[in-house]
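Exercise 7. Predict the joint structure of the components listed below.
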Amino acid sequence: MHNFDFVKPASIADAVKALSSDGAQALSGGQTLLPTMKQRLAAPAVLVSLTGIAEMKGVCRGDGGLHVGAATTHATVAKEAAAHYPALAALAGGIGDPAVRNRGTIGGSIANNDPAACYPAGVLGSGATVVTSKRKIAADDFFQGLFSTALDEGEIVTEVRFPIPEKAAYVKFQQPASRFALTGVFVAKFGTGVRVAVTGAGQGGVFRWTEAEAALSRSFAPGAVDGLSLSGDDMISDLHGSAAYRANLVKVLTGRAVAAAG
Amino acid sequence: MTKVSMTVNGRAVSGEVEGRTLLSAFLREGLGLTGTHVGCDTSQCGACVVHVDGKAIKSCTVFAMDVAGAEVRTIEGMANADGSLGTIQQAFQDHHGLQCGFCTPGMVMSAAALLAENPKPSEADVRHYLDGNICRCTGYHNIVKAVLAASGQDVSAVAAE
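Solution:
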């Protein structure tokens, strides 16, 4: 990989300052960024590590839900969110493998917005709020397509705030080699309605399946989506699964997620 | 080059690194601790697993400078003080948990992390925890058996295939 200057600020303010320099890039757990840099698909001039910022770490109950610091690892969320939001903890505990979960972070995952990552489904499916170094962004506005988010240059995700649903579950069909979701569905039932977020399927990254949300808001039962059909037109197609296969997986996994949510 | 310091296997160490120096490279080339193996270098195989502040991580996917000041433990730190094999290492030998041995350092470090979290894992727990450690020789049966044996459980009924 190309060389770079490495800095590790201890506060959000210092990190924002460091990111204002030319060619600067934020580094969180690095479980995607390091492989990307090894392939020379990314070559930052300055790498700003966010792993030394104490105010960006930890899980706590806060206004209206669960607040997760953006530099909190998947392993920590799996453990510490379990008592508050079991579906989110289970999602975090199923990402990658144990060693990846000990480094990878929620902020890094959603800022990257990989179309097959698990966290975008959990954040969008929960209707969470993404807190950054300068504003709060609703999940519905945050994810903007393949590897694309509402973040401006130099803006850092500092925290994610999750409202806690009455029932929720995430079910993924794992791609065994990469350990990413071939397709994954997060279902959350709130007093106000149901949200269904799908990862690993849409060409534009994570998306909400609104027809299923309407059907499940009327009847929160696994069979409620049986009569729906999802078009494969906007689905990812690759050697692991065709677009039609993924479209069918979305429906099957939605039913399984509803069953798992109970 | 920048000076980086950390504790490796209980010993304070330091060395000159570039920003891009991976922890695996610092251990192997900087400190001569070649027990940590680099298999795939793409964070898939787990041969390079070491412990940083008690947690298993892939040392090929962490920059040395990002773990400055940390407590690192490698396979060289797993033997007993008198040089004899540690419990997990001995169990791998007793139960033939390796063939070529390339993946073994990572397997042992992952197993140690598992047993620290879960001292009496089930066979399913072991298989699930070793998801990120790839062995191309053994078919995993004897690795799983060795980890169960290292946890002090009776493995006489576990199939050895």
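Discussion. Chain B has two domains: 2-77, 87-150.
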